[in-house]
Structure formats: C-alpha cells, structure tokens
Amino acid sequence: MDRTLGRRRSARDWVVDSIAFTVAVLLGLVLYNDGEKDPIPEWLLALDFFTGMALCLLLWFRRRWPIQLAVLSAVITVFSEAGGIAALIFTMTVAVHFRLRVTLALLGVNIASMTAYALVREKNEPILTVIITTAILYVGAVGWSLYVRSRRQLLQTLRDRADRAETVAQLQAKQAQMRAREEIAREMHDVLGHRLSLLSVHAGALAYRPDASTEEVGQAAEIIRASAHQALQDLREVIGVLRAPAGELPQPTFADLPVLVEGSRRAGVPVELELDAPGTMPDHVGRTAYRIVQEGLTNALKHAPGQPVSITVKGAPGNGLQVQLTNPAPNRRSGQRQGQGLIGLTERAALVDGRLEHGRTPDGDFRLAAWLPWPS
C-alpha cells in the first residue's frame, strides 16, 4: 500500500478530490440522462440516480477506504449509470496506491460487473460490444494509473536516495571534523607538551638552587620567559587553525630537528644527536620523525630530568629512516599507566606505513625506536 494513504489531506489533495467529484457528478448526470432511454422500471431508474450520486459523494472518502469503496462501486454499477465515472475513479485510486495483484483482482470484479450491467440494463447495442467498450475504458484507466504509480515510486526512490546521500555527506563531514579535531589535539600535545616540559625543568632548577647567583637566576628567568613566549606563539598558531577553516596546521620539518635538540640542551638536558640522513626526504616522513624525537625528549624531561639522552637518526632513500632515543629509565610505580603521547606516536607511525616500539633495554634504559619508509 502507498504510504500517502491515510495521511492528512493536503491542499493538492483537496483540489484533486474536488475535480474528481465535479467530473463524476457532471458525467454521471450525462450518462444517467442517456440511460433513461433504456427499457427498465421506473424504480430501477430512480435507484440508479440516487446510488450514483451517493457514489459521487463517497469519492471524498476514497483515500480512507479505497478497496472497500471500489468493490461497493463495482456492485452498484451493475444497474447504475450515474455512478459509472465514480466507480472508474475508485478503481484508478486502487491502481495508484496498491500492488498490481490487488488492481488485477479488482479489474476482474469490474469485468464481471460489466457483464451483469449489460444484461440488467437491456441496452440496444449488442452485449459483447458493451462489454468490450467498457473493458477498454477500464483497462486504459488502469494503465494510466499504473504509470502514475510507477512514476511516484521512481520519484520517491530518488528522494530517498537524495536523503541518504545527504545523511552520508553529513556523517562524512562530522567524521572529517572529528579527525581534524584529533589532529589539532595531537598537535597541541606535541607542541605545548615539549615547551611546558622545558619550563618545568627551568622552574625546578630555580626551586632547588636557592643559592644561585643573581646572574644565574636572571638567565634562567630569561629562558623561562622565552619558552613561555614561544609556547604562547605555538598555541596561537594552532588555535588560528580553528578560526580559519581554509588554513593548515603549522607543521615542522625534518630540517627543524637540530633546533629542537638545541632547545633541550639550553634547558640543561645533555642531548647527544647522531644525524645521518642524506637525500631528499618526503615531508610526511620528516614531520613524523620530528614528532617522534619531540615526544621522546618531552618524556625524558618529564620522567628523567637531567639524565642524558642519546638520539640516533639514520637512513637513506630506499632503505627507510631509523629513529632511536635512549635515556636512563625512571623507577616507575607498578600501577602507573602509559601516557597518551606514545599511543599517538604509534598512530603517527602507522599512518605513514611505519612501525614504532618502546620499552626497557637489558641495561635498564628506556628505548624509543621507529622505522619509517623512505622511498627511493
């Protein structure tokens, strides 16, 4: 059954129903006047008129009881010509809103009604001519109704597809927004985590050196001020991406790696860097290597402040890039959980088809190692 049946009548439905009622009444009266010439009793002629007009009035309820009224009209048109057009409209209504088998069954009922009509009304024309003419009229009306039904189904299918496409597009947009937010959160963690770790180291040095000279305090304060200023600048750049959708996240490059290491050295962390990676490196690989080193230095500053860090970055086109950081491992409590930084690094490495591992070495040091693809 069509989903439009039973719903509240729209303005278009009111117009269509009004036209159908008017046409049924006018043509029904024409047929009734023509049928007055038939050799039938007066009481049957009066019954023809009143039942025919009743069928026309029932057209206003054809959307509520379409099949019931169509069957009733088929019975009444056995003797009524005034209700012939109304019966045809009832049949068309069923053909538009119901399956083909229901329509064919109703068409069979109407053909039987036509045969009985030809016998009851005693037409001057041959019975076969009356049956064939009326059958052609009904088949044509049903065919047109089936075309209307198929067209409505096609339009509804196109609307459903459009709605699904819009829903999928909205979901994809939300997913893209979530991925962008995750990327921004990762950038904020990488950028600000390292800067704030440097601030923590210098502030801790001042706290544990109450006997420091004025010059040393001034130098440490200047480093803290510069690091805080840079952290604020990095934060502004990241937040700026949120305000400008067309912008891109500020991304470091592999060439910035020595500057990153030098900043940690100025913070008092003894860092040893071995860099051997000649050739032109893809941006995404170099950026991932930078983030791995940055996260490793941040973890060293947090968990093993003042301890030496050894960094090795080696590779060549076609062989891949190997990144390794080692530092003395802190004595962690057994219940301490792994931070989100290492999880994020693992995801970063996987995104460029690389791999990352971390853990304690047999010597008791903490080791962070990654291999990244470097196509030739």
UniProtKB/TrEMBL annotation:
Enzyme Commission code(s) on record: 2.7.13.3
Keyword Transmembrane: yes
The protein's enzyme class: transferase
CDD domains: HATPase_UhpB-NarQ-NarX-like (cd16917)
Keyword Membrane among record annotations: yes
Catalytic function, reaction form: ATP + protein L-histidine = ADP + protein N-phospho-L-histidine
GO cellular component terms attached to this protein's record: membrane
SUPFAM superfamilies per UniProt: ATPase domain of HSP90 chaperone/DNA topoisomerase II/histidine kinase
Sorted UniProt keywords: ATP-binding, Kinase, Membrane, Nucleotide-binding, Phosphoprotein, Transferase, Transmembrane, Transmembrane helix, Two-component regulatory system
Residue stretches making up the Signal transduction histidine kinase subgroup 3 dimerisation and phosphoacceptor domain: 181-246
Gene Ontology MF terms: ATP binding; phosphorelay sensor kinase activity; protein dimerization activity
Regions that span the bilayer: 12-31, 43-62, 69-96, 102-120, 127-147
Superkingdom of this protein's organism: Bacteria
Annotated signal sequence range: none
Stated name of the protein: histidine kinase
Lineage: Bacteria, Bacillati, Actinomycetota, Actinomycetes, Propionibacteriales
